[in-house]
Amino acid sequence: xxxxxxxxxxxxxLRLAILGAGWAGMAAAVRAVELGHHVTxxxxxxxxxxxxxxVALALPDGREVMVDNGQHILIGAYSDSLRLMRTVxxxxxxxxxxxxxxxxxxxxxxxxxxxxxxPLDAAAGILAARGWAWRERLALLRAALGWQRAGxxxxxxxxxxxxxxxxxxxxxxxxxxxxxxxxxNTPIAQSSAQxxxxxxxxxxxxxxGGSNLLLPRVDLSALFPQSAARWISARGARVVAGQRVxxxxxxxxxxxxxGQPFDRVLVATSASNAVQIAVxxxxxxxxxxxxxxxxxxxxxxxxxxxxxxxxxxxxxxxARACARPCWRCAxxxxxxxSSCSTATPSRLPxxxxxxxxxxxxxxxxxxxxxRPPSPRRPRGT
Length: 381
Ligand SMILES: Cc1cc2nc3c(=O)[nH]c(=O)nc-3n(C[C@H](O)[C@H](O)[C@H](O)COP(=O)(O)OP(=O)(O)OC[C@H]3O[C@@H](n4cnc5c(N)ncnc54)[C@H](O)[C@@H]3O)c2cc1C
Fold this sequence. Notes:
By secondary structure, the protein is of the alpha/beta class. It folds into three domains: 15-93 and 220-269, 3-Layer(bba) Sandwich (FAD/NAD(P)-binding domain), CATH 3.50.50; 101-211, no CATH class; 311-381, no CATH class. The protein has helices at residues 23-34, 79-87, 92-95, 120-128, 134-149, 160-163, 169-184, 193-204, 220-223, 225-233, 271-283, 287-301, 330-333, 360-366, and strands spanning 15-19, 38-43, 54-58, 64-68, 74-75, 96-99, 102-104, 110-112, 213-216, 238-241, 249-251, 254-257, 260-262, 264-267.
């Protein structure tokens, strides 16, 4: 990600093509326009935002509602994303609901951080965590201090399960695992400890409010990509939606897309799409370029992926509202006060303060209310 700094073109303006109008592509486009380059964004889909986009869903009764492509939560530590939103005219204070981090269960046990400077908030939250034995709180505090002393660095081969093996089982089940799955979308045995430590550092140990949960009040396309597209278009850039780029054609000294010449091309698609583009582009390229493209594609093709399942369910009947907003329901709850739903029950296996599943689609359309939180599952199940 390019660093925030005052626009200062270091080269003559370039003709830049960006493939993909997900958040990465649109972030790059905004920065390139700030730097004075001539930008064209090509997006295969008709909607901007990629994986983090709004999706129009038809309800069984025929009504159409906007939902998100899965539950997305930002955290306060996403300072570059927040800066980009401000740049393109989105006010994060109104577009996002900011809640202090609370990983609590319906009986009130678990972690809730006070609104204090970091890392005092984390230390106080751990010491005050309800339902945890002193032995467990001190073990987590000791581990956190150890990670801080090591500069949040560890052996790159370690998994989160390895990193936390010495922590009491309860902490691993009720704190580390839900946090890891929600942050990295990967079970602790397969998640990189180094990446997890980076998340902990940014969220809990770097800045006040870094661990706050930021819950979108508007759909994900409106939250950034559409505003970014308007902002760059007003400055002479082009956003071409509904145009997949299958291959780039090299005719020295330019890359060509649909006959248009570009000085540089930035591929901001998923790795698998980028591999396809590289392989296709290599076919007609000179051997020196083709070899580089094949080498890159070979490396990128080794990346393994894990699907995230999003379930949209519709509640049959209104039920009692949550006494307090739960973070999982909040994206919908805050859009329509007194309505509540969960969109991705698969993401956090033991959701603190979770309401019974209904859907963002349903909640936005007919404002069903949350059922009371289901009883805590017995440990070990
Ligand atoms: C269900 C779900 C929940 C998630 N929850 C969170 C969360 O809570 N917090 C969080 O931070 N992250 C979350 N993520 C991850 C986040 O969505 C992604 O990391 C992020 O959206 C990736 O953005 P990107 O721009 O790199 O790629 P993408 O969003 O994949 O964008 C790539 C774009 O390139 C386009 N494209 C592909 N091939 C071509 C081509 N040949 N020509 C032109 N265009 C092309 C695609 O259509 C797409 O629009 C979640 C992801 C999912 C799926």
